[in-house]
Each structure stands twice: as C-alpha cells, then as structure tokens.
C-alpha cells in the first residue's frame, strides 16, 4: 500500500499550493463584483488571469485597468503578492503571528520554495523577506505616487503608485493604465523608469542575495552564489541596454523620436524588464527583429533563484557559460570566482536549461497549430514570455484561442514553479542507484 506521506513531499505541496491559490483567485474573478460591467469574467479568462497573477507573469487576455473593478484589481494584487513571495512565506507569517512553532516539515517546504541550499536560519530569512518587501514596495509606491499625482487626483495616484510598485517588485507586469498601454506614456520619465527598473532588479536578485548584502556589514563576505547573481545581472543589464540602444536608435516607432537621454531610458527599461517583469515603455510589436530576438533570450534566462522571477535563472546561465569556456580552454574544472563548480551543479544546470528549451519549443509548435495565421516570432515570443513568467507580448495573448490559452496557462505554471520542481512532484526521486552500467564512449562534435 502506498503511504499518503509519499504525496506530501515539498515539491508536491508547492505544486498543489499554487494550484489551489490559482483556483480560488479564478473563482473570485468570475464574480460580478470583480468587473466594471458587473458580469464577471468567463471562467477560462478568469483562470488565465489568476494564473498570470499568481505566477507573476503579466500576460493578460483582457486589459486589467479597463476590465476590473477595484475588487477585481485587489484580488489580482493579492495573487501577485502571494505568488511573488510564495504561499509558504505567508503561511509562516501567519504561524508566527499566532505564536505557532514552525515544524521541520514546514522548514523543508520553505527551503524548497526559496531554492535554498541550507535549512538553518530559514525562518529568520522569511522574517527579513517580509521586512525587505514591505520596505522596498513602500519606497517605490511613494515615489510613483508622487510622480502620478502630477497626472491624476492624489487618491488615484496613491492607488496607482502602490499597485505598480507591488506589481513590478514581484516582477508581475500588471498595470492599470488601460488600453494595453503599460507604462508607454512614461517612456522618457526618469522617476518612473528608474524607480521601476530598480524595483524589478531588486525583486529579481532573490531574497537570499538581498539578505547576504544586508549582512555584509557584519560578515564582510559574499557567497559565490551572490557574486554570480550580482555579476551576471550587471553584465546582462549593461549589455542588453547597449544593444537595444543601438538596435532601436533609428526606429521611428520606438526610440527614434526621443532625446538622447530618453533613448537611454527606453533602452535601459527594456534591458531590465525581460528578466522578468513584463512592463514595457516601448510598443513591443514595433521593436526591430534584433531587439525581439534579444528579448526572447533574456526572457528565457530570467533572473536569480529564490526570487520573484522565472526563466532558467541567471545562475544556470552563468554555470553553462563557465562550462563552455572551460571546455574551449581545455580545462577539466569549471571555475567561477576562484571556486570549482561541482559536477552535480553542472548537470543540474544542463537539465534545467534543456527542460526549459524543450518546453519553449513544444509550446511554440503547439501555438502555431492552435492559433494559425501569425508570424512565427509571435509564437516563440509568447512561449518564452510565458515560460519566463515575463508578461511581454507582441499582441497575441488577447487573440489566443481557448486551447491556446490553456497551453499558456500550463506554461506559466511550469515556468513559475520550475521544470525540476514539477518533475520531482510527478516522479519519485531516487537518492542512489543499485548498480552502475558499463562505461560507454560516444564521439561528440
């Protein structure tokens, strides 16, 4: 007889937990009170929106600002916050408020949820995460509220400011501007662009990295994980900003009409947002093919592990690049920041990357079958955006067929939890093998 506890390991609980939150959110969004017209959404559209919010993606089949009432928007905002930080973070917070002791089982769940290496200090980390989140979202909300107050009544400005602060810190990309505009009216506004870029970056670093930076004044050291995340984030941000600046400089539909500083702000925002926020200040459909392809690559890479972002994660990308460089140089060891990367980490990086690539390829193929009549790059862009939980779209999302929407729902879910978590939830993990097969040699290259 199969024991029930076999179904209660951390990956399975995380999958079921996220699925439950999504279903509750979908049901709430079908209520008449959730929409401006007093009718409520069709269940499939509500399920799509709830999945996108909980998985902090930002892809939408209906415009958030034009469709939902205050109640519906607050439901979406709650799903974003819970999905971004993880339901186990909020469960732990409630347990702490009630004075309940956090059990070993719950600590293991938190360790899995944050993709943490160590179990020690996990509850302390959760407390700091809640403080970091409240502080960063409050500062961002105040700055955006002050800027929005120039264009709208103060009450509306505060609501918009904090909504967009929470949405972007959690890398969700939902907006209230209406007409699928996102933040395009503020393409060259330094307050909005720099504030949102900072929040996206902080949310994408990962809470473990933020915690190490906070403790640096006492420890005077950073782990190799934090060094890799910070260095790779810097390289990708600077590199993508420069490339997009060059690719779009003469494009009359994007950066062309802007001043030099405006061009820089537009390029910076779109160098940051694909990892993996989803807000945009330039019309995505009008970007050059070079920028679109670069954006697809950035969406696939994503941001830091244990963060609010998706993708294969920048640490995976860094390990793959380091392995490639070591092979080119003919070195046996893969080294990052004077530390040898163990073979288990390298194999896991390859597994995550190949799993993600397979998902994107399959989803692209399926969308080309279910939603015919579009350019190929639109299918690829949509698939990468859903897997990376980014939320950028070339305009395909609202036009998706029912089957296409289900495909994207499943892709967003897989992207948020990660291919390995889903794989471990479905299959039984083995710690060791009973025997080893004989070695075999295959010619490569």
UniProtKB/TrEMBL annotation:
Its main location: membrane. It is found in: Cell membrane. It comes from Metabacillus sediminilitoris. GO terms for molecular function: potassium:chloride symporter activity. The keyword Transmembrane applies. It comes from the Bacteria. It is a multi-pass membrane protein. GO terms for cellular component: plasma membrane. Keywords: Cell membrane, Ion transport, Membrane, Potassium, Potassium transport, Transmembrane, Transmembrane helix, Transport. This is Trk family potassium uptake protein. InterPro entries: Cat_transpt, TrkH. The keyword Cell membrane applies.
């Amino acid at each position: 007889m199969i024991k029930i506890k076999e179904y209660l390991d951390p990956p399975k609980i995380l999958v079921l937990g996220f699925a439950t939150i999504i279903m509750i959110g979908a049901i709430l969004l079908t209520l008449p009170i959730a929409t401006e017209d007093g009718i409520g959404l069709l269940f499939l559209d509500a399920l799509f929106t709830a999945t996108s919010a909980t998985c902090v993606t930002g892809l939408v089949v209906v415009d958030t600002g034009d469709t939902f009432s205050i109640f519906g928007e607050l439901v979406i905002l709650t799903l974003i916050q819970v999905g971004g930080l993880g339901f186990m973070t909020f469960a732990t917070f409630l347990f702490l408020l009630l004075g309940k002791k956090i059990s070993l089982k719950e600590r293991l769940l938190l360790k899995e949820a944050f993709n943490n290496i160590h179990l020690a200090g996990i509850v302390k980390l959760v407390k700091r995460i809640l403080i970091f989140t409240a502080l960063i979202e409050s500062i961002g909300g105040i700055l955006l509220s002050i800027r929005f107050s120039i264009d709208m009544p103060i009450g509306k400005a505060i609501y918009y400011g904090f909504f967009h602060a929470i949405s972007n810190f959690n890398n969700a990309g939902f907006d209230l501007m209406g007409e699928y505009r996102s933040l395009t009216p503020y393409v060259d506004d330094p307050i909005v662009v720099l504030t949102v870029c900072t929040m996206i970056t902080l949310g994408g670093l990962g809470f473990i990295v933020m915690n190490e930076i906070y403790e640096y004044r006492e420890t005077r050291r950073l782990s190799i994980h934090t060094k890799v995340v910070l260095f790779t984030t810097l390289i990708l941000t600077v590199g993508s900003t420069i490339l997009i600046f060059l690719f779009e400089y003469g494009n009359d539909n994007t950066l062309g009409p802007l001043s030099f500083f405006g061009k820089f702000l537009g390029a910076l925002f779109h160098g940051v947002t694909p990892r993996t926020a989803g807000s945009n200040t330039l019309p995505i459909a009008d970007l050059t093919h070079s920028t679109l392809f670069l954006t697809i690559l950035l969406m696939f890479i994503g941001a830091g592990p244990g963060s609010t972002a998706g993708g294969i994660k920048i640490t995976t990308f860094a390990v793959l690049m380091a392995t490639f460089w070591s092979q080119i140089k003919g070195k046996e060891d893969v080294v990052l920041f004077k530390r040898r990367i163990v073979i288990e980490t390298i194999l896991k990086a390859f597994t995550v990357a190949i799993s993600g690539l397979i998902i994107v390829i399959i989803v692209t193929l399926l969308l080309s079958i279910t939603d015919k009549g579009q350019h190929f790059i639109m299918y690829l862009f949509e698939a990468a955006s859903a897997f990376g939980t980014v939320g950028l779209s070339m305009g395909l999302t609202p036009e998706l067929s029912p089957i296409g929407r289900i495909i994207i729902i499943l892709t967003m879910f897989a992207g948020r939890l990660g291919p390995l978590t889903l794989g471990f939830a479905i299959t039984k993990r083995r710690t060791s093998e009973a025997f080893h097969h004989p070695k075999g040699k295959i010619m490569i290259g």
